[in-house]
Amino acid sequence: MSAPPTPVTVDPRLGAVLPAGAVRLVATAPVVLLDPALPPALAARFADELGAVPAGPADDVPAGAVLLVPGLDPHAPAGAELLEAVAVMDRLRSPGGCPWDAEQTHESLLRYLVEETYELYDALAAGDTAATREELGDVLLQVLFHARVAAESPHGFDVDDVAAELVAKLVGRHPHVFAEESGVVTATDQDVRWEELKATEKRRNSVLDGVALAQPAAALLAKYVSRATRAGVPPELLGAAVPDGPPAAVVASYLAGGDPEGELRAAATALGEHLRAVEARLPTPADGTPRRTTAEDWRTYWE
Description:
Layout: E1 6-10, H1 23-28, E2 32-34, H2 40-50, E3 53-54, E4 66-70, H3 80-93, H4 99-103, H5 106-126, H6 129-151, H7 159-172, H8 175-178, H9 187-202, H10 217-230, H11 235-240, H12 248-255, H13 260-281, H14 295-301
């Protein structure tokens, strides 16, 4: 009776990738066998690329044979499960997958994106680790879903395009990390540099360009204040540009029949309009470089 084949564990999450330590063993094997438990698509890849064949009766195995069996690689790089998530999403949208998933569009998924984002916010705010892990997964599902829908468009993109653009953005906006640029020592320095790099990349004319207007009014107002602060607007000018009153004023407004959400949105809109008007009066560099404003610049042109 011939010796049993030498098992080589391959991680289905990584695709048709052999462990580094098994490459020579597989290359010199007289035959490479496929365990029946391997996913069909993965088995087909190994059959095409290695000439592997389905495992048969033990008596037919030649000496030195290798058997590819599925299993999790303990040394797999971080992110291996993301590949599995992409594969699952692809299966759901492909023929023979889930009819509901196959029918979804960017538009039909919008409400789920908003809902899942708020649920993640609640989990984080509550400090609930288990819920945070789950809700992060639900938000990730929305990213994978929208990327998969986009991949089906004639001029769309896929999840790798999304990841590649993110990598390029992170590297490009951290030259002090990836290009050894000097001048960024503190988190505040990085805030300022981040906004300068964004302005250059996106050719923005205003510090408020790119702010999502559909977000809740309080978040919108806070975002405007954040952008203005990063641009150097003094706190006293921002404080004078919006109505006075503690959070209790929101409750009082609601109880009096008012619309605190509308009032906050109106305040945010008024602040945004004023900031843009001031920006229009600020001097613009003649050489086309991003405008760098100081607190004194904003004070001078504020009225």
